[in-house]
Amino acid sequence: MRCLSFCLQFATGASKVLLCNRSARFPGRFPVLTNRYRVSLRYRPYMSIQKDKQAPSEEELRKKLSNFEYQVLREGGTERAFTGEYWDCHKKGVYECRACGQPLFHSDTKYDSGSGWPSFFAPIDKDSVTTRVDSSHGMVRTEVLCSVCSSHLGHVFPDGPTPTGLRYCMNSVCLKLREE
Ligand SMILES: [Zn+2]
């Protein structure tokens, strides 16, 4: 049940995801069963989010971030499609929050959505991001924010691939890839 709990936590909002109970026999790996696909995601203990991590102050962020990074992360801006550093990146690693360093996404969950922005089907941990309703620009969307520093990261849409059916559409400028 512990593994089941982990899986459901990982696949936020994915009601159709079930954990294979054989996972206990494969320490270090978490096979995930879906209706049609089996996805194996390697478990990396170092990816754990830092729940007691302190958010940097606004003053620190102003010094640390470039004007454009600050505009997107702290003021909810958006980079133009097909212009960011990571939309076509296929390197392995952990994508961290550019503002505070919180691990947000792993390259194992990254896929080519064709949108021109880096897209993931799940965050690295259900507690690594938070969401809220965004009614700006005449649309109702679900905004995704870093759970530590509340920086804007992008939006999540219900048109992603299995196993979650979600598309976390992120701004490259909000992320920093720590390569493996
Ligand atoms: Zn952050």
UniProtKB/TrEMBL annotation:
Keywords: Metal-binding, Oxidoreductase, Zinc
Presence of keyword Oxidoreductase: yes
Domain of life of the source: Eukaryota
InterPro entries: Met_Sox_Rdtase_MsrB, Met_Sox_Rdtase_MsrB_dom, Mss4-like_sf
Reactions catalysed, as given in the entry: L-methionyl-[protein] + [thioredoxin]-disulfide + H2O = L-methionyl-(R)-S-oxide-[protein] + [thioredoxin]-dithiol
Molecular function terms from GO: metal ion binding; peptide-methionine (R)-S-oxide reductase activity
GO annotation, biological process: protein repair; response to oxidative stress
Protein name, as recorded: Peptide-methionine (R)-S-oxide reductase
Keyword Oxidoreductase: yes
Enzyme class: oxidoreductase
Cofactor(s) the protein requires to work: Zn(2+)
Domain MsrB: 58-180
Family (UniProt): Belongs to the MsrB Met sulfoxide reductase family.
Cofactor note: Binds 1 zinc ion per subunit.
Any Pfam family matching the protein: SelR
Enzyme Commission number: 1.8.4.12
NCBIfam families (alphabetical): peptide-methionine (R)-S-oxide reductase MsrB
Stored SUPFAM superfamilies: Mss4-like
GO cellular component: cytoplasm
